[in-house]
Amino acid sequence: MARTDRIAEPWGTRTPYGPGETWPTRVDSHLADGLTADDVDRWVPSATILHSNGDGLDIAVKDGRIVGVRGRAEDRVNHGRLDPKDLYGWQANHSPDRLTRPLIRRGGELVETDWDTAMDAVAGRCRELLDEQGPSAIGFYTSGQLFLEEYYTLGLIAHGGIGTNHVDGNTRLCTATAAAALKETFASDGQPGSYTDVDHCDVIALFGHNVAETQSVLWTRVLDRLAGPHPPQVVCVDPRETPVARAATVHLAPRPGTNVVLMNALLHEVIGNGWVDREYVDAHTVGFAELEERVRDYPPEVAEEVCDVPAAQVREAARVLGTAERLLSTVLQGFYQSHQATAAAVQVNNLNLVRGMLGKPGCGILQMNGQPTAENTREAGADGDLAGFRNWSNDAQVADLARVWHLDPFSIPHHSPPTHAMQMFRHAEEGSLRFLYVTATNPAVSLPELGRIRSILAQERLFLVVQDLFLTETAQLADVVLPAATWGEKTGTFTNVDRTVHLSEKAVDPPGEARADLDVLIDFARRLDLRDRDGAPLVTWSDPEGAFEGWKECSRGRPCDYSGLSYAKLRERNGIQWPVTEDAPEGTERLYVDGRFFADPDHCESYGRDLVTGAPLEETEYRALNPHGRAVLKAAEYVPPHELPSQEFPFQLVTGRTIYQFHTRTKTGRAPQLQAAAPEVWVEMSASDAADRGWGEGDLLEVCTPRGRVEARLRVSGIRPGVVFLPFHYGYWDAPDAQERGRAANELTPTDWDPVSKQPIFKTAAAAVSRLAASDGTPSPAPTTTASRPVAADVPPTRGGETALAEETVGGAR
Amino acid sequence: MKLGLAIEELHRSEDHLGKVLLAVSDRHQADHEVFHVARDVAAWSLRHVTELARIGRDFGLDLDPEPDGEPGLLERLQQATSDLLGRRPEPGLLLLADLRHVHREAAGVSLDWELLAQAAQGARKRDLFDLARRCHPDTLRQMRWANAKLKESATQALVS
């Protein structure tokens, strides 16, 4: 057993392995100061909640308190390993500033009240607006961090009970394009690949995916392959010099906003060189001729001009991709939060399809998620989809949902796609959406153009309900604040990127009067007196297991089929991949084996959209295009970004994240080791841009766009020249005076989104940068261990010290 | 042969559609998707205009490849006003009317392309036929966009 500073070494100790071998175990754990495993009263099974990887762990409980965590060696996802956020983040549960009582606005101030008063106010205002205006006045904005049972109940209440179309999650900001890209290609959501594809692949291609910081345990798996015999080649597309870029065989750093040109050029080369599995393409896809014609205009020289990537590098990357024998492709925010997000992400699907590399070990696609339970928001219908990946424009499927819910199909809104988050805020802005119920998310820091968002949320005519753990920046604007229980304080299931379902058990009681989100939602439904077509209560369950059983029936026969799962089964073996059915009782490792898809016109979730305008295809168009339910190859022409650099705003601004923080730091900012590792906003710039201006490490800069300004200290990093980077984690809850000078990166971002996935664009704002003061020797607060690594050697390295020592046991039992 | 007439008419109607799309964009700056997508697809019409002017020369026509498209004072004023009006619900109804107008204009342009394609085929003018084959799908996409956006926007605008 070794003790490792996991702030200094985020990925821990290497356990090398070769292709086709089983990834060795390494059990990571961290307990409160002075405690050992012998002191722990109980170990309670759960999974990780501060990223989307879904690593199995046990929560250590002593004297009714959480005192630490330990990875589960037998879990298929992590084989015992944990991300630094999980090793230290549990401490946030005990923060003294947790909300413990409901709050209500009285005379302009939020004051403590009891649950009955708070819930009567919430349900009362909702009912009042339903009577006055109808369901179009009511909206729900949820999260990627609740549990499946809660999303399903929320979707039922909103779509089925209230009948509003306005339901979305903050998953719109992180994973909407993953779902959209899968719907375009496979006509249904559902992740094709499996994490075990890392064990088998000979090439892994990461498109805008800094996996080292976003899913660090998955990166550990890749690092262990890279350290073993016959390592895979790595292709990386990223404008920053990320840990992935440093490990890459080929690193392409395109100009922001040009991903579609780069992808079209890569496909141009793959097709032009005949690296195409014709047999697979002919048998299992439609649209190859159109794809071929579309990419004909994008030779590598065009990419060189538009993306500023040498044509030779594009050719080299295409050769690695084109000659791979087992290709694993992954995609994340660098594509999803960019201009033409879906069109770029779809080209990655196309790449694996034309190469015939899908549904076999090592041959997979992972359209990644950003949050732990984002997958559930999508499948349970709390994010702008209908429950069970049902197609809103297919009347038979809506009728089937109505059957499950005992409702008249007419009462489930399906006249148009469910309203996406950005449009809901627009409706609130123009005054037609007057009740917004926000659960477990912080739009006042995470949405683009914060000045606008704050002014929308602060409107008197908008009744704002916020259900959260802390008095977040958003909660401060609310009319009613409801204190919620969190991970470890309630029971429920959640599903990670590769469809692995974990049961997370309640380990301790929530603080004060805080309640599980599920209990609050059920109470809300009861107070609204929501009923089914026979007059019986609409929500028939009163606990998580009941909700899970309801969801199982709703999912039966759909791609995300949970009908063969149960709490009992997950207690026996936690971490099972859906679909789980009578035919596949132990789960399903890979979707789309043998080129069989869920794309049949009668069963598919989506008929697709125009990749430039976002207009949905009509059923008749889809039937003509794809009568036999094959995978759809489609591609788009390049459209330039809407905000281009100018003389006044010469830089391109990219926002993003660091391994040590999650979202708006509501939890990680309250875990001392994590907060100390990345304590304050910083700005990254390339060495050449800094040298041109005579600026250096630690200088205080001002970053401006037409929408706002942010002050941050300069980290001279390996980022692409012409681009500046700001992490988006830093708001105002722990620095209330900072609003004046600007601390949140989203003060600067534009209100603009991909018309297909409706995911906002965080990667292509035009920005001006100036220096406010030279450094007095203080370096930038950016971590040195990650993509923000300094180019200069004299910056003190990021260390966690004594309190960050975590245990690692290599090769434990599995 | 009246091919020249058909090209001239299409040049006029595409130019008009492009300007309508830009005007709609200007009027709905606070509806960000409409603002941006209307501009993106207006670019298709402007490209068609340029191509029609170029091919028009083969038929003895002198058409402007880039009719004045820059926003004038009036349009800039509209942008500013639409931003200020962003807090009022009436623009929702104006948007429906505008999208309906775009759809009708695009439908007219689509028919003009049909006419041109038929004529080009009859007269064995391959270049002209290829131009129609290339451009007409863009017009259909503009129409479908207006239709879809109308459908999507109608409910909230009409029932709230």
From TrEMBL, chain A:
Coiled coil feature spans: none
InterPro entries tied to this protein:
Asp_de-COase-like_dom_sf, CT_Nitrate-R-NapA-like, MoPterin_dinucl-bd_dom, Mopterin_OxRdtase, Mopterin_OxRdtase_4Fe-4S_dom, Mopterin_OxRdtase_prok_CS, Prok_molybdopt-oxidoreductase
Domain 4Fe-4S Mo/W bis-MGD-type residue range list = 41-97
Q: Does the keyword Iron apply?
A: yes
**Source superkingdom:** Bacteria
Q: Where is the composition biased (Low complexity)?
A: 772-793
Q: Where is this region: Disordered?
A: 1-22, 772-814
Q: Name one GO biological process term.
A: nitrate assimilation
According to its UniProt record, which protein family does this protein belong to? Answer: Belongs to the prokaryotic molybdopterin-containing oxidoreductase family. NasA/NapA/NarB subfamily.
The protein depicted here goes by the name Molybdopterin dinucleotide binding protein
Organism this protein belongs to: Geodermatophilus tzadiensis
UniProtKB/TrEMBL annotation, chain B:
Q: Which domain of life is it from?
A: Bacteria
Q: What is this protein called?
A: Uncharacterized protein
What is the scientific name of the source organism?
Answer: Geodermatophilus tzadiensis
Q: What is the lineage of its organism?
A: Bacteria, Bacillati, Actinomycetota, Actinomycetes, Geodermatophilales
